[in-house]
Amino acid sequence: MGGFQVIVPALPGIVTYGRTIDEAREMAHDAIACHVQGLLKDGEEIPEDPFTSESPVIEELRIAI
């Protein structure tokens, strides 16, 4: 078995998983969209990304064998 776990440091609490890298990306997109929609619905502010002062990381992969 195996797969890919995704965390979103800018939005603590988001952790998702996919069996393939493409599925993990899709799950991350859905999780982020759902989380932001929930914040807006509840009248909460969207947190500022603590990484905006740094160059963005497009993708980071860690593979354990």
Summed up:
The chain has 65 residues and is α+β, with helices and mostly antiparallel strands. It has one helix spanning 21-41; strands at 4-7, 15-18.
Give a verbal description of the structure.
This protein has 1 helix and 2 strands, in the order ββα. The protein has one helix at 21-41, and strands spanning 4-7, 15-18. It starts with a strand and ends in a 24-residue tail after the last helix.
Count of DSSP-assigned helices: 1
What's the rounded overall pLDDT mean? Answer: 82
How many beta-strand elements? Answer: 2
Report the sheet-strand fraction.
Answer: 5-15%
Largest sheet: 2 strands, antiparallel
Helix content: 25-40%
Q: Show unreliable segments.
A: none
- In sequence order, what are the helices and strands, one letter per element? EEH
Give the overall silhouette: globular
Distance N to C terminus: 11 Å
Strand order of the largest sheet: 1-2
What class would the helix/strand composition place it in?
alpha+beta
